[in-house]
Amino acid sequence: MNKTVALWLAVGWAGYAVLPWYAIDDGFFGFAWFGGFPASIDSAPATLQVMDHGRAWLLPIGLALVAPLAVLWRGGDKPWAATVLMTAGGFGLAYTLAQGFAIGLGGWGFGFIESAFGELSDRQFGMGYGAVLVFGAFLFFLTQGMAKRGAINGDVFVVGSIGLVIALIAAFILFPVASILISAVQDNDENFAPALFFIKLLSRDIWGLDCLTSRLTCGIAWNSLLMATLVGAGTTMLGLAFALIATRTGFRAKKILRVLTVLPIVTPPFVIGLAVILLFGRSGVVNTFLEWAFDIEPTRWIYGLPGIWLAQMLAFTPIAFLVLIGVVEGISPSMEEAGLTLRADNWRVFTTVSLPLMRPGLANAFLLGFIESLADFGNPLVLGGEYDVLSTSIFFAIVGALVDQGRAAVLAFVLLAFTLSAFYAQRRWLGRKSYATITGKGDAGLHVRLPRRLTWTIYAAALPWAALTAVIYCMIMFGGFVETWGFDHSFTLRHYIEAFSIETGRYGLVWSGAAWNSFWTTLEIAAISAPLTAGIGLLAAYILVRQRFVGKDAFEFGTMLSFAIPGTVIGIGYILAFNVPPIEITGTGIILVICFVFRNMPVGVRAGIAAMSQIDKSLDEASLTLGATSFTTLRKVVMPLLRPAIVAALVFGFVRAMTAISAVIFLVSANYDMATSYILGRVENADYGLAISYSSVLIVVMLAAIILIQRVVGTRRLSRRDGQQFGLEGSAA
Amino acid sequence: MKQSIRFSAPLAAVIVMFAAAASAQTAGKLTLYCSPQIEWCQLVIKEFQKATGIKVAMTRKSSGETFAQINAERKNPKGDVWWGGTGDPHLQAAEEGLTVMYKSPMLGKLHPWAQNQAKTSGYKTVGIYMGALGFGYNTKLLAKKGLPAPKCWKDLTKPIYKGEVQIASPHSSGTSYTTLATIVQLFGEDEGFKFLQALHKNINQYTKSGSAPIKAAARGETTIGITFLHDVVTQVIKGMPIKAVAPCEGTGFEIGSMSIIKGARNLANAKKWVDWALSPGAQKLMPKARAYQVPSNASVAPPPEAPKMADIKLINYNFKKYGSSAERKRLLKRWDKEVKALPR
Questions:
Q1: Is the pLDDT of residue B6 over 70?
Q2: Between 20 and 30 A from A31 (CA), which of A168, A212, A332, B274?
C-alpha cells in the first residue's frame, strides 16, 4: 500500500520538479528544449516556474504534493491517512485544472476573474509532460484514499482503474463533446439563446413525415432511424450466419470466408461506395447487362436507401461477425447436450438453448451495427442521393454554404438520443439474466449439429453475400491497375508508381512517391493507438461486468458516448477543446492517437462485455480466494479467456485508425497527414486510380497486421473434445 | 521615474532579443491551408520553396472545411495563409474578422475582378483565379437517348431532360449557392425562382459536393451536370465523353481567393507568399497542375484548355450582396420553401 503511495509520490515530484511543466513547442521528443533546460521559461519545471519566473499560482500544487509525505512517514494504515490522501489528491486535481483554465494564452481566461483581480501581465501555454505526471499522481492519491476508506472492498487496483477511466473519459470525451454541444443553445455570436434550440430541434426537415402522404422526403431523423434499424438488423443476422458457418458447420472454404468477412472493415472509406456505383449504378455492370439482355431501361435505384444499405451492410457485417463469433463458440456444449439428452431435436435445442444464450452477442452486434450506421459518413455521402441522414447533415451544417454550428449541435443531440434509446432498449432486452456458460467445471462437450434447414438458410444468406463481397474486391483491386476506373480499362502501373515510387538518390533511398508521407504517419498512429484502445476498452469492460459501484450506468454510457457522436462533431469538438491551453494538442500526432483511442474504445468495451458475461464469476472468485489480487486475476484468469475480444479490440483499433475519415479531416496537420484524408482529396478530384491503388495497399497492410495480431495474441483454449473446433476460434480472419 | 527607466531598459533589450531570437527561429516557416486539388497545392509549394527557401507545412482541406477549421481555431490560430478555394467563404471569413488586411504590391497588376474581390473584403482577401459557371453533358448518353444538346439555362428546364440533370444542393455546396445567386441575378428574383422550380422537375439528384454532378456525368450516372466550367474541362482532358457548355444567357462565376489568417505566427512569410502567389511565375503553374481557371494576374494568359472567356457572357455578379450571411440565409430559405418542397 505504502509502496504504491511512494511510487506515485515519486512520479508526482518528477513531474513537478524535474520535467518541463509546459508543453514544448517543437515537441517534447524533439529534445530541442534540452538546450535551455532547466532555466528557460519555456522548459522549466514547475518548481523553477514558481521561483524564477514569478508564476506563484503553481505553488499550491507543490503543497498538495507535500501532504502525502506525511502518510509515508507515519501514516501506515491509520484512518487519517486515507483522509490526507483523498484531500491532497482531490484538491490537487481541482486546483491544477482550475489554474489551467483560469490563466490562458491572453492572461485571465474568464472576464469575471479579470474584473475581480485586475489585469494579469503573465500568461501560460498548454500543459506538458510535467503536468501530466502530476495529474496522474493526484488521481491515484485520490483513488488510493478512497480504497483505504473501503470503496470496492479496498481494492486499490479496481478503484484506481475506475478513477483513471473516468478521468480519461471526462477529459477526452465529455469535455470536447460539451465544447461543441453547448452551441446548440447559442446563436451564431455565442449568445445564450435557448429558444433557438427548440426552434431548430422541432424543425420540419428533421421530423417531417411528408413521405407517408406525398412524394416528398421525410425528416432526416426518420431517415436515419430507418436506415440504422435496417442495417443493425441486417448485419446482426448476416454476422450470425457467418459466425455459425465458421464455428458450427463443416464448410470447407472457411478460411476464404473469413477473409471475405474481414475485408470490408479493412477498406478505406469511399472505395466500397465507388465500387457499388460501378456495379449497380445507372451505367454500372449490372444495369448495362440487364439493358443488353432484357432491354430494361437503366435507372438510378441505387442512389438512396438501397445504396446506403448495401454499402453499410458490406462494411459493418464483419463487426457483427467479430462480436458474434466469440459468443457463438463460447456457448458451453454441455447445455446443448443436456437439451439433446432431454430428447429435444436439433431445431428445438438451437431455438431454446443456443439462441437465447447468444443474446448478449446479438444485442451487442445489433447495437454496434445500429450506431455505426447512424454515425457513418462516407457511404451516405457517395450513395445517399437525396436520402439525407443525420451524419451528412451535421457535416454540411458545419462546412456547407450556410455555417450553422448550432444546427449541427442540435442534430448531434438527436443522434445521441437515438443511440441512448438503442442502448437502453438493449439493456432491457438482455435483462438481468445470466449468460455465463464458461465456468470452471468440466465442460468437455460437443456442440450440437445445427438443424438442417437452418444450415441451408445460413448458406443461402451468407454465400451469395460472400460472392458479392468477392466481386466488389476484385473490382477494387482491378481499379488500381487501369487508366481510368470504369472507363478506360487499359493496364497501367502509373498510379502505383505515382503513389509509392522509391528512388535511390545521393544519400540512399528517397521515398519519392506522393503517398509515403501519409502512409508512414498513418501506420505509426495506428500502431500506437491500437494497443491503447484495446487496453482501455477491456479495462472498462472488466470494470463494468465484474464490479459494482455507484454511477455504473453513467460510466457505461460515457464509454459509449464518443462512438455515438458523428466524427465531424468530435473533430470540431476536439479543435474547440484542445486548441487552447490547458490541453493544447492540435497539430500534433497525440491528438490523432487520443481521438482514435476514445472513438474506438467502445468496440473493445462491447466485445469485452459480451465475452466476459459468458465467463462465470466463480472463476475470478476462485482466483481471489486463493489469494491472488484482482490485477493478477485479470491478467492470469480473465485475459486468456478473453483472447477473441482482445483480438477484436486490437484489430478494430488498428483498422479504424487507418480508415477513419470524418473526425480526422479536422485533426490532420501538415506534419501528421493521414492516408484517408489524402485519399479523400484524390477522390474529390476524381483521381480514382491513385485513390484506389493507395487503398489497395492499405488493405494489404491491414490484412498483414491482422494476421500478426492473431499470431501474437494467440487463441483461447477451451478444453473441449472436438479438436477441430478450438483451433479456429477467436481468429478474426 | 528614473528608476523605472533603469529597470525597463534592460527589460526592453531582453524582449527585443527574445523577439529577434523567436523570429530568427521561425524565419523559414509557413503554415498553409490549401483548398484546391492536392496536385496544385504540392506544385505551388515546391516552387515557392525553391523561390524563397521558406519551408511550407501544408494541410489540404476543401474550402468549407478550412473555413470551419479557421473558425474553430480562432482563439489560437495555427495557420498562416489560406490559399485557394471559392471566394464566398473567404469573404465570410473577412466579414467575421478571421483574416487580416494586406495590400500586396502586386494588387495593381491584377484583373479588375480580382482587385474588386480585395476591395469588397476591405483588402482581407484577394482573387487568385476566376472560374465561370456552366454545365457539361455526357455526349454518349445524349446520343443514345436522342436528345438535342442543351445550350442555354432555359434549355435545362425542357421536359425532355426530365430526370437527366444533376446539381449540388445549395445548402451543402458553395458552387450550387453561386448558381442560385447567378440565376437570381440573371433573371430577376421572382423569374429566377420560377426557373428553379421548372429545373427542379428535371433534377434527378441534388448532390452534396459541388463538383459531384460532372463526375457523375463522366461516369454516365447522369446526362447533364451543372458546375464550374473548369471542373468540366478537367473531365474532358481526362478523356471522358463530356462536352462543356457556357450558357447562352450569360453566367455567374467564382473568384478563387486567398487570405492571411488573423494571428498568423509567420506574418512576414505569409505576406511573401501572397506576393509570390500573385506573381506571373506562380500563376503560370496552373495548367501544369490541371487547373483550368483564369489566373488573376493580367499578364498571364489563361491556359489554352481553359474555357474561352470571350465565348462566355459573364454577368456583373454582386459578391458583396450575395456573399453576405443574411442574403444567403434568405435565399436558401426561399429555395427550401418554393423549390425543394415541390414534388417532382
A1: no
A2: A168
